[in-house]
Design brief:
The protein is built from 2 helices and no strands. By secondary structure, it is mostly helical. The protein has one domain.
């Protein structure tokens, strides 16, 4: 494990912001006339992805700590 892996995991976690922005734009601009259920499903999916991304980020961080790559 190296810092590049940690940086990649951090960038992937930030992707959530883009995901939320996309749903917001679709709703506000009226593209496709999304139903409330479709919006809710999209947001639930983003929430699940966000949790997975942050779990991955935490795992990378913990592994780097174990390998003594990150020091206090």
């Amino acid at each position: 494990m190296n810092r590049r892996n940690l940086e990649q995991a951090i960038k992937e976690a930030w992707q959530t912001q883009s995901d939320v922005k996309l749903v917001f734009e679709r709703v506000m601009d009226g593209y496709g006339d999304l139903t409330e259920d479709e919006v809710a499903n999209a947001l639930i999916g983003i929430e699940a992805l966000m949790e997975m991304r942050f779990l991955k980020l935490w795992e990378v961080y913990e592994q780097m700590l174990e390998e003594n790559v990150i020091h206090d």
